[in-house]
C-alpha cells in the first residue's frame, strides 16, 4: 500500500513493475488512469490547475486505501494523484490494484476511484482560451457512486 | 468569559473559499459559546466583508477538523486546525 501526491507525471509500467517485482502471488492487476479532457461542458479548456490540502490529502488517500484492503483481498495497491498545472491529455490520477483474482482487483479499483472523487481534498480550476476560468463544480453523481458502496457489506459486488 | 476563555484557532481556506477570503489561513479567537463547526461558520459569516462572501451559502462549504472530514454538528473543542473548502473535485 502506498500513496503519492506529486507534480511530476507517473509511469504506469514502472508503477506496476514495482508492485509485482519478485512476487508470484498476484494473478490480476487493474490500473485506472484519469486524464485531462480538452473541453468541459462543451467549452474548450487550455489547462487545469489542481489544488490540494497538504497533509490531509495524503491522510485521506491512506484511509481510503486501507478501507479497500479491508474489503477485498488485495496483494498490493498504489494511488498517485498529480497537483499543479496540467494540460489536456496529461495524466491526473493513477490507481493500481493487485490481487490473486480479477474480481477483487476490478472492484477495489472502482471503489478507490469513487471514494477518492468524493473524499480526497483536491480541487480543479479550469482555464479557457479567452482567459476566463473557474472552479469545477462537484457532481452529485460522484457522491452517488460512493454511496452505492456504503450500502453493501464488505466484499460484495456493487451492480 | 472566565469559564470559557477564547482560545486561538488556526483556520485554513481552500479553492474558491480561499479566493473569496483573500488568504489561505489565519488565526481567530471565537467566543466561548462557539461550540460546533456550524456555530463557527455562523460566527465567521457574521463578521461580514470577505467572511460574508465566503460563507454566503454555508450549506455548500465543507469542513475538516485536524485533517478529517466533519459534519456541521461536530464540536470544535480541542481542534488544532479547522479547514473550510468547497466539495472536492479530484480524480
Oligomer: heterodimer
The ordered H/E elements of chain B are EHEHHEEE
- In the CATH hierarchy, what is the architecture of chain B at level 2? Roll
Total separate domains of chain B: 1
What is the overall shape of chain A?
A: globular
- CATH fold label of chain B: Ubiquitin-like (UB roll)
Work out the number of β strands of chain B.
5
Low-confidence segments of chain B, ≥5 residues, pLDDT <50? none
Query: How many individual helices of chain B?
Result: 3
Helix content of chain A: 25-40%
Question: Superfamily at the CATH H level of chain B?
Answer: Beta-grasp domain
Could you walk me through the main structural features you see in this protein, from its secondary elements to its overall organization?
By secondary structure, chain A is an alpha+beta fold. Chain A has a single domain (3-150), classed as Molybdopterin biosynthesis MoaE subunit (Aldehyde Oxidoreductase, domain 3, Alpha-Beta Complex), CATH 3.90.1170. Chain A has four helices and ten strands, in the order βαββββαβββαββα. Chain A has helices at 12-20, 56-71, 102-119, 140-150, and strands spanning 3-6, 28-35, 39-40, 43-44, 47-52, 74-82, 84-86, 91-99, 122-127, 133-135. A four-stranded mixed beta sheet of chain A has the order 1-6-8-2, with helices on both faces. A four-stranded antiparallel beta sheet of chain A has the order 7-5-9-10, with no helix packed on it. A two-stranded antiparallel sheet of chain A has the order 3-4. The two termini of chain A are 26 Å apart. The model of chain A has no long low-confidence stretch (mean pLDDT 94). Chain B is globular, with a radius of gyration of 13 Å. Chain B has one domain (9-85): Beta-grasp domain (Ubiquitin-like (UB roll), Roll). Chain B has 91 residues and is α+β, with helices and mostly antiparallel strands. Chains A and B meet through strand 5, helix 2, helix 3 and strand 9 of A and loops of B.
Amino acid at each position: 500500500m502506498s500513496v503519492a501526491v506529486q507534480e511530476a507525471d507517473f509511469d504506469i509500467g514502472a508503477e506496476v513493475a514495482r508492485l509485482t517485482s519478485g512476487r508470484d502471488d498476484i494473478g490480476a492487476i487493474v490500473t485506472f488512469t484519469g486524464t485531462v479532457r480538452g473541453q468541459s461542458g462543451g467549452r474548450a479548456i487550455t489547462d487545469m490547475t489542481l489544488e490540494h490540502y497538504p497533509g490531509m490529502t495524503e491522510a485521506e488517500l491512506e484511509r481510503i486505501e486501507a478501507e479497500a484492503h479491508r474489503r477485498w483481498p488485495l496483494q498490493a495497491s498504489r494511488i498517485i494523484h498529480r497537483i499543479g498545472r496540467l494540460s489536456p491529455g496529461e495524466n491526473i490520477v493513477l490507481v493500481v490494484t493487485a490481487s490473486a483474482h480479477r474480481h477483487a482487483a476490478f472492484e477495489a479499483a472502482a471503489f478507490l476511484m469513487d471514494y477518492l472523487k468524493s473524499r480526497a481534498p483536491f480541487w480543479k480550476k479550469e482555464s479557457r482560451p479567452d482567459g476566463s476560468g473557474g472552479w469545477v463544480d462537484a457532481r452529485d453523481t460522484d457522491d452517488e457512486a460512493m454511496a452505492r458502496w456504503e450500502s453493501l457489506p464488505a466484499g460484495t459486488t456493487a451492480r | 468569559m472566565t469559564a470559557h476563555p477564547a482560545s486561538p484557532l488556526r483556520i485554513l481556506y481552500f479553492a474558491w473559499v480561499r479566493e473569496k477570503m483573500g488568504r489561505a489561513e489565519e488565526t481567530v479567537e471565537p467566543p466561548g459559546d462557539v461550540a460546533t463547526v456550524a456555530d463557527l461558520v455562523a460566527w465567521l459569516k457574521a463578521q461580514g466583508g470577505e467572511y460574508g462572501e465566503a460563507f454566503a451559502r454555508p450549506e455548500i462549504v465543507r469542513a475538516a477538523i485536524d485533517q478529517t472530514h466533519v459534519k456541521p454538528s461536530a464540536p470544535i473543542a480541542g481542534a488544532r486546525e479547522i479547514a473550510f473548502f468547497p466539495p472536492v473535485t479530484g480524480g
